[in-house]
Specification:
By secondary structure, the protein is mainly α. The protein is built from 9 helices and no strands. The protein starts with a helix and ends in a 6-residue tail after the last helix.
Amino acid sequence: MKKEELLAMGLTEEQATKILETVHKDFVPKTTFDTIKTELQTVKKTVQERDTQLETLQKADGDMETLKQTIKNLQTENKTQQTQHENEMKAIKISNAVDTALRDAKAIQPETVKPLLSAFLEKATLAEDGTIAGLADEIAKLAKAEGTSFLFQAQTNIPPMIAGASPVGVVTTTPDVKTVGYETRLSDARKAGNAALVVAIKREAAADGVQLF
């Protein structure tokens, strides 16, 4: 159950928060579960591969040099697979860290914000505890910047306004998050020079009722 559903039932913000904390306190976060699941799948695959390698060595015929070369080839293959596994796990942990940080920052649509962090994440360092140094600050910049602040929920310390009222002389508009998401993807595709992707995004947006230029 989401907080929005509890609020719709007439509960206060504080009541909804307490209920969610009680419901989820004994559950493992999905990001942690996904990481563990991937690790277990990799371990199972590795064990199967090692069994196959042992069978290959047991069936190996010929002189000692041939056997040595077989072992050397297997060692090289194992090292390559280990590197691939480490890179995959790093990518998963970085994605989980970003998801958690965006949730804490109250991003409205995390998938729309993620592309804006790509340049930062290319140089980011993943700590042993699964956190990324400077990520919270980078997201805070987006939450405060004039062009991206609308991607996050409004801060609770903003003075309340009378419903339906706007400051004199100010016309307020609410950016369409869906449209911004398509525009961001379209901009990235154009920067990458991917014409096919540009056409595909425009078609997808048009089917969703969004006109892109």
